[in-house]
Amino acid sequence: MTSTAPHATTEPDPTWRATVRARLVPPSPFPAWVGWASALAVALFAGVLRFVGLGRPGEIYFDETYYAKNALALWVFGYEHETVEDADAQLATGNGDIWSGGADFVVHPPLAKWMIAAGDWLWGLLPMTEPVEPAGWRMAAAVFGTLSVLLLVRVAQRMTRSWLLGSAAGLIMALDGLHFTLSRIAMVDVFLTFWILAGFTCLVIDRDRTRARLARLAEQGSTGANWLGVRWWRIAAGVCLGAAIGCKWSALFYLAAFGLLTVAWDYGARRSAGHHRTALRWFGFDAVPAFFQTVGVAAVTYLATWSGWLATSGGYGRTWGEQHMAGWLADLPGWVQGPVNGLRSLAYYHQQMYTFHSGLSKPHDYASQPWEWIIMRTPVAFYYNDQPSTCGQPDCSTTILSVGTPAVWWLGIVALLVMLGWWLTYRDWRAGAVLLGVAAGWLPWFAYPDRTMFVFYALPMLPFLVLAITMAIGLAMGAADSRPEFAPWSRVAGGVVFGVVLLLVIANFAYLYPVLSAETITYEAWADRMWFQTWIYGNGGEG
């Protein structure tokens, strides 16, 4: 049986060329400027939402007690440093001289803290010559939270070929309470999410560019292309995923998942292009290079995030290599011993970090299991303050409850089921990609049932949950020419679904906004917004 695809030595068949191009490169139905304009508009809205009241509350709260001070220490010393007992209060009053002792043992990589420090610098807080404003150490989180919304709009537009659905995706994430609160606090999770989403975006662009190149080769009658050129966007994805690991180790799950995803896309592209001996070409010219372009580049990027620690001598465990120098190292030149001992010290530090994480099982009222995240059973009370008579009533409350907007997460459950059914039925690459994105950020945590975990660990899977909602809406709206006899009615029904979903998300977020943003409201208004007992007490009982 012979292939229907023409060989490179024959005249390309126009019908075959058109079929291959249609399979590989779906046309964009809107001009590029429309996509960018809508993305920037949604990102501007998200940015305003995050920056208004960013300095509220005017003190360090929740895990800012670690990250705000660690960021300042990195800027001053190049490594995390121990602080005085009342460092939080001193920092909030503008005193940056809060150091005591020596190096501090910190269990997360440094990149996100360097980004927080850069936000401090941009805000004008470093060096500490002016009174500190908490908005300064939260600035970077607000910036990268906003940029993650911009990224989501653009990647959703690529995946759905709709500027409207892409804009809806950005709006939904902008109005999620978990993303909102974590974009207004000096913690690492929003940076982790940004770099993971950036890596995914680069891979989607690489997929489009690769398939476009295969289509061009097909137009020339080639079904045996081997090397497809330098995959710069896939290399960029490796950089982004390495940066994500440099924020938090949980990004390793995404590196593994996305590494498999991109080579699966390559195999499908070569099959669609009608290549002969697809598996052999795919393995030698796609899969093997992909390992170095993702895993290899990510490893180099991750190591670079430790530059400050490696370039100084005072970091925790920094001199372990010199103090435990193996005999064979003594025979090496001094210029070799230094870097080798630095890497050995870094390996020792990582062993200590892994020991801490693997044994972390300290009880916490707001700790939760992964199954609770998707339903927002146990959010985290980042901040609560009882301020009598400041709201015009005898009892007032000021709180920051880090909870995902229920309309987003609960609708997300339905959307995931739709995507699963769609993928099983049609093997749609987009459905598979979002399912994998959610799985990589959620399922691995079930392997650690005794570990102390919190709902904000779920933030990296939020963009993929939102993509699932967006694509489910797209399926409801349908294509105008998919069923001509039902198209008008299906479009009307889909438009209703689109409007109802967005209205639910907007209304739900607006209702919860006072308890997400540290607004001072009456105690009764606060209590009305605590829908479940676990939103008040967590798993700590009725205290």
TrEMBL record:
Claim: Protease is one of the keywords in the record: no
Metabolic or biological pathway, per its Swiss-Prot or TrEMBL entry: Protein modification; protein glycosylation
Compartment annotation: Cell membrane; Endomembrane system
Keyword Transcription annotated: no
Membrane-spanning residues: 33-52, 135-156, 163-180, 186-205, 280-304, 407-424, 431-448, 454-480, 492-513
Annotated EC: 2.4.1.-
Membrane topology annotation: Multi-pass membrane protein
Enzyme class: transferase
Domain annotation Protein O-mannosyl-transferase C-terminal four TM: ranges: 346-535
Domain ArnT-like N-terminal: from-to ranges: 104-263
Keywords: Cell membrane, Glycosyltransferase, Membrane, Transferase, Transmembrane, Transmembrane helix
One GO cellular component term noted in the UniProt record for this chain: plasma membrane
Chief subcellular location: membrane
Highest taxon of source: Bacteria
InterPro entries linked to this entry: ArnT-like_N, PMT-like, PMT_4TMC
Function, in words: Protein O-mannosyltransferase that catalyzes the transfer of a single mannose residue from a polyprenol phospho-mannosyl lipidic donor to the hydroxyl group of selected serine and threonine residues in acceptor proteins.
Record family assignment: Belongs to the glycosyltransferase 39 family.
Identification of the protein by name: Polyprenol-phosphate-mannose--protein mannosyltransferase
Source organism: Streptomonospora mangrovi
